[in-house]
Amino acid sequence: MKNVISFFVIIGLTSYFCYKKVETTSSFERGNYGVIDWDNFGYYMYLPATFIYDDLKLKDNTWVEEAQRKYSLSSNYYQAHVIENGNHIVQYTAGMAFLYSPAFFAGHLAAKLTSYPADGFSQPYQLALLLQSYLMVFLGLFFLRKLALSFFSDKLSALLIFLLCVGTNYLQIVPANVSSPHVYLFGFYAALLYLIHLWHKKPELNYSFLIGLLSALMILSRANELLFLLVPVLWLGGQFKTYQQKGLFFWNNKKHIIAVAVPLVLFGLVQLTYWHYTTGQWIFDSYTNEDFKFLSPYLKEYLFSYKKGWLLYTPIMVIGLIGLFITVKKNRGVGLPILLFMLLNIWVLSSWDCWWYADSFSQRSIVQCYPIFLLPFGYFIQELNLSFKRIKVPVIILLAVIVVLNVFQVWQFEQGIIHSQRMTKEYYWNIIGETDFYHANRRLLDPDRSVDYLPEEKPQKHKIIYSETYSDQSDVDVMVDGRYHKEEGSLTLSNENRRSKIVQFAFSDISDTTFSYLISRIRFKSEYDAKVNPFGIEFNMIDAKSGKSYRRVYRGVENIDRFEKGSWGTLDLVVIPPFMRNENDSIRINVFVKGNEPVKIDNFSVEVFDPSFLPRLEQLTYYNDYNTLIIGNWSKSSSILEEKGYEWVDSTHQYSSTLSLPISELDGRNSIEVELNANLKYNYSGGGVIVSVGNEKESYFYKHYSLERKGEDWELERFSFNLPMGLPVEGATLKAYVWNKSTAPIFIRNIAVVCK
After folding, report:
1. Which residues, in sequence order, are bridge partners of residue 556?
2. Which among 425, 427, 446, 418 has a CA at the least distance from the CA of 580?
């Protein structure tokens, strides 16, 4: 039998991939085989929405949420986004739905003929898609072999297929996500390249139509595959030695242009029609959180970063890139179009905001076009045999080492030693050769940005970057148990005024590190049950260039257990901002009422816990609102009124709680401002704000500022001064507090010490 070596290579690889999948999903675990979950669920969603639920606009989330819960398809519903007209738009284009449709209809028929639910997601659907996906793997390798044998010998073809499938991250993605677009489109690339080669040898109309059809499905699956059209347009070979010859052929045979254009136009209209049907717009950006930065791509990060650099984790592709230029030298008509395509493709892929996307080993986004590299690898090895015989053996040894390294690192990834999202330079070198998950130093990983709590060993640097007490709002006098109280002023949010003031900071202005813990807190009061009138704190990370939010976190009263209708309570949101796209990206935080009934909000603050020791803040703010987390070493005051959020200082309790701030923490700042938000209801005389600096034995500095009654509302007082130069730093402490010598009470809402 001719060409048996390459044939057995593709049979062996297909068998291995099937075995790996069966090994990891030997049963219908968690309700699925891992073929219609996460992103694939979004690609597939068109089919049940259209043919089972008659809900292509996704107005009814019930069936989607039920499918997610029953079959463990994803932890949250991110695959479609709600739009202004109330519909949901599927984030992904419809190409993969067409490719999944044979398995869908086969599964639907099987479910109808058996006792399985005909819901679009039960075992017959998933099993049908799993089997179809492995057929696609085989067909992809089959056409890759056909392409290789058109240019190279059987032995070299077998070696090239082995290098592309075992020496790259294709080895990881097939068992892990066999139904993904990358695996399907790998086969499309191989088939298209082979068809293009055949067409140039013998330009038949059926080849033209198939090239147009496969290209249309590929582009409809992933829009950036549109770049691939450069390859058939610019390819020269076979009967066509020049572009003039090729252009003249199409001029005289326009039916070939029509054969290619018809499927491209028809499938393009399918997507445009869906967008118009769902949104009312013919063109719609369904990726609401992400964008391309074509003028400033993340090229260095995409190729070389420890986080997920393509050439770092798939180093064999360095040889593939070198081979592109050798291909141009050896076969200019083929080499130039694939070189141009790959350069543009890498540029576009590295322009994607989330260039490291997906829980995958190395860069998943480029796997589908690996058949393009078959020719560069082949010409590289041929050139090695002809012109570089002296370095042939070292290069062969290097290739072997790279393949072994790839196999080992894929194994490390499967064992969890290599992390899919949080790799760092320090951690990468720590786990070289490591075979035990528990021996890897996980502290060297990038922080887990999904946490919503402060760790026990929380960073010690913490700053209030925003605080608002709404003291300019009206307040009410009340008597409780014969004692005078004030019902605080507050901000009322309602159906007419759903959001508080938006707090926005450039992240680089508040932190020196790539991450910090942000804590936002509010006090609230609602006369309605949490589920009836939900509200809470909303965080968004804003792209500085596009203005889009690429991470949103919300925590509302409906998520807490301590909500009590009609009483003042507290709510906080803890979030670590995501891995930033640009150094000028900003955080945006506000309070948001989702219900239609009024809610009172008070003491809205945002605080940063920063692991860096030298924060970039122009000023350091130490703050106490007597209700939320105490910042600084405040003494515990018995006169803080429970759940009232302010402190009572009178003749019985003459001193407020005290802030003790180490002078060493000011890092040389000597301009100090004390802010006091207080209410002097009665005629008042004596006492005031006291600021001092000293140690346990002696005092170095003392300031006293008298307080005067200006009205019956809460007043914000500010006192500024400069600390003397040359004060002892070691062991010295700055203290600030209120002293009341009068019999009339002082009510203190909060005190802040600002150091500039």
Report:
1. 536
2. 446
Rg of the chain (C-alpha set): 33
Q: Once rounded to an integer, what is the mean pLDDT over residues 560-577?
A: 85
Task: Report the candidate in 501, 556, 500, 563 with the shortest Cα–Cα distance to residue 527.
Answer: 563
Are 609 and 624 contained in the same domain?
no
- Which CATH number fits the domain that encloses residue 479? 2.60.120
Yes or no: say if 751 and 674 are a contact pair by the CB < 8 Å rule. yes
φ, ψ (nearest 5 deg) of residue 315:
-65, -20
What's the structural domain count of the chain? Answer: 3
Cα 88 from chain centre: 21
Q: How far, in Å, are 2, 161, 328, 385, 399 from residue 392 at the CA level?
A: 28, 20, 21, 7, 11
Per-residue pLDDT tens digits for 176-190? 999 999 999 999 999
Taking CA atoms, 504 is separated from 467, 472, 508, 525, 587, in Å, by 12, 22, 12, 25, 6
| Chain centre distance of CA 555 | 18
* 683 CB neighbour count, 10 Å cutoff: 9
pTM of the model: 0.80
d(CA 452, CA 152): 56
Q: Which amino acid is at 51?
A: F
Residue 275: HSE in the Cβ half-sphere, 13 Å Cα cutoff:
17
Structural domain for 468, as ranges: 447-617
Q: In sequence order, what E strands does 177-262 have?
A: none
Kindly state whether residue 269 falls inside one of the protein's structural domains: yes
The CB-side HSE value for 394 (13 A sphere, CA atoms) comes to 4
- Asked whether residue 426 is domain-assigned, the answer is no
254 within some domain = yes
